[in-house]
């Protein structure tokens, strides 16, 4: 029954998108003299709200390729879209500027997400000197006055790791987790030390400090 309802729902959504929605858009354009991109830019101030609407419109217009262009090609992409939508750039000079600004934000965001995802998928490698150096930096930031007795040591539990080999704590978020923890310790040391102190208290001992490094990588927004 649930499968049947899902199929029916998908059918009506398809019908709406392909027929009713397009028909409604046609009527609105004839009535206002503006396409959807024009209405979005003229009715919304520059910012996240406008950029989100433009991104969703590109997807609905089957213009997803525009969201993945190189930043150097954003201007040409907008010119092509305006030509496709039959928008005169001479009578709508601000529209092209607004669309370029929003598309640059989208392209930059998607590029950042790709870089972060690449870090997340990269496992911690104890044979990689750069990975090991970052891990040692983390120890020195959180325990500057305490020498580490060895690479494999129960001392790692003192800064919130769950075992004697900290690499096992990065299985969820990969190298991104280590980057998060090190950045946190270097740029907001007071808060990091306080969180570490709290996590080691009896009432909080089940929440390991290193857990926070993994948690920082969970939230994402997709276009």
TrEMBL record:
Pfam families: ELMO_CED12. Residues 130-223 form the ELMO domain. GO terms for molecular function: GTPase activator activity. This is ELMO/CED-12 domain containing 1. InterPro entries: ELMO_dom, ELMO_domain-containing.
């Amino acid at each position: 029954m649930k499968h049947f309802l899902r199929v029916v729902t998908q059918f009506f959504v398809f019908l709406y998108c392909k027929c009713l929605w397009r028909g409604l858009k046609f009527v609105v354009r004839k009535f206002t003299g503006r396409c959807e991109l024009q209405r979005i830019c003229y009715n919304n101030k520059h910012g996240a709200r406008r950029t989100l609407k433009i991104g969703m419109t590109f997807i609905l217009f089957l213009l997803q390729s525009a969201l993945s262009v190189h930043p150097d090609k954003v201007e040409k992409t907008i010119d092509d879209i305006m030509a496709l939508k039959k928008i005169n750039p001479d009578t709508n000079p601000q529209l092209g500027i607004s669309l370029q600004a929003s598309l640059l934000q989208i392209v930059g965001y998607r590029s950042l997400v790709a870089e972060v995802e690449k870090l997340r998928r990269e496992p911690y490698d104890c044979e990689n000197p750069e990975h090991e150096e970052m891990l040692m930096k983390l120890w020195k930031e959180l325990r500057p006055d305490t020498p580490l007795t060895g690479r494999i040591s129960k001392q790692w539990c003192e800064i919130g790791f769950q075992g004697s080999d900290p690499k096992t704590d990065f299985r969820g978020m990969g190298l991104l987790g280590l980057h998060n923890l090190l950045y946190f310790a270097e740029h907001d040391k007071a808060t990091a030390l306080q969180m570490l102190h709290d996590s080691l208290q009896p009432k909080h001992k089940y929440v390991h400090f290193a857990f926070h490094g993994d948690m920082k990588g969970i939230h994402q927004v997709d276009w």
